[in-house]
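Re-running the complex after MR caught last week's input typo. The corrected sequence lines follow. Everything else is unchanged.
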Amino acid sequence: MNFTNFGRYILLLKAVFRKPEKASIYMKAIFKQMDFIGVGSLGLIAIISTFIGAVMTLQIAFQLVSDFIPKTIIGSVNRDSSILELSPTISAIVLAGKIGSAISSEIGTMRVSEQIDALEIMGINSPGYLILPKIIAGITMVPLLVIMSMFLSITGGYIGGTLSGAVSAAEYVQGITTDFNPYTIVVALVKAFVFGFIITSVPAYEGFYVKGGALEVAQASTRAVVVSCITILACDYIVTQLLL
Amino acid sequence: MIEIKDINKSFGSNQVLKGISGKFEAGVTNLIIGGSGSGKTTLLKCMIGLHHPEQGSVEYDGREFTTMSFEEKIEIRKEIGMLFQGSALFDSMTVEENIMFPLNMFTEQSRSEKLDRVNFCLERVNLEGKNKLFPAELSGGMKKRVGIARAIAMNPKYLFVDEPNSGLDPKTSIVIDELIKELTEEYNTTTIVVTHDMNSVMGIGDYILFLHEGKKFWEGSNKEIAHTDIQELNDFVFASRFMKAAKGKF
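Corrected-run output:
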């Protein structure tokens, strides 16, 4: 059954990447999706990243109570955790919930109300028209959101650490600037790219093949989020294993 | 002209269409009728390529459709207009954007030319000035008319209509039927209407193909339909008290 789904997913992607009927229409749709996925998620990602950064600092400070460990380590651990794991993965899981359910229910509703059939009858490649702009918006905007998330998470750590007194401002700044390896940013952006693809394509697949009515659309939406999250975590492990 | 030959379609072990053949001429209103579950909509979907028949052929003016490549089918589909049972208007677009959508996709016309065409189509279906409304703001009959306006926006050679009267009051149903007939005659389109509405059958059925349990039981015109000895057809035609009472007056 899962192999069947995977096969259909691949066939859908093949149809998605057919030559667009009219580039200008697709460009408009891409910008609209970028606004929805990127600008529409700024606030949520900002709040989550800032708080996660702050909480991380407090927890690291709580766990590293020793005279032999310099407090600067709090900044560097927070920095690497945020860049390598928390910003890409937590952002992706949150976005899978927010964007994934929206994509799945949008396309699913179009399916059950025959709007996708209407596109097909007009001679439009419906997978391309409906899904390609979302995938392109996903693979471009999710990395940008992750970059913002990294920055805010580290900033949140600074705010949380200094306000609570867990670490001084000078120690934290020294921590985040010591032994920085820029390659971690590359790993994080590769993850963000992969997650952006998953967050948009998996829910689109779930929505595209819905049969039935409102209940089935809702079920597809739930399934889309669950499958996206599991796929994100699996791909997180694979990318980390390959790149680190 | 559209010709179907020996169409067979199954879903699992359930054979829905059993060797259906028929010829649908241009400029006349062709009806596919039958009770619920008789295979009408499945036949329509086989004809437009939303379902793939296991056997048989569909020819659009001599061009065999079922064996065409994806790209060739797209060319045929650009000549097709379709009104869906639920109208299938794009929810996120206004009436104007819905009608303009195929023009945006497949023509290089300027915005003003496209707008002229949209206004012409809206005028044709008696919905002038409704450009900026969204589908959610329209009544069922208005949605059907917008659906027709969108279907004719590209001057289709072939017009398919699925259950045009479902959910409409009798008066609006007649308006929609008349509109379909007028457009068919005006533009000489090959129009195929799937319906089980007897008012439509008697009002606009120039050529009627009757399906029962997936088989073609009868074909003819609305003038002949009330005068057959086919039990299954008579059961369908004279199912309502009104039709029973009117029997013999046709």
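None of the earlier attempt is carried over here. Chain A has a mean pLDDT of 95. Chain A touches chain B at residues 21-22, 25, 109-110, 113-115, 117-118, 120-125 (CB under 8 Å).
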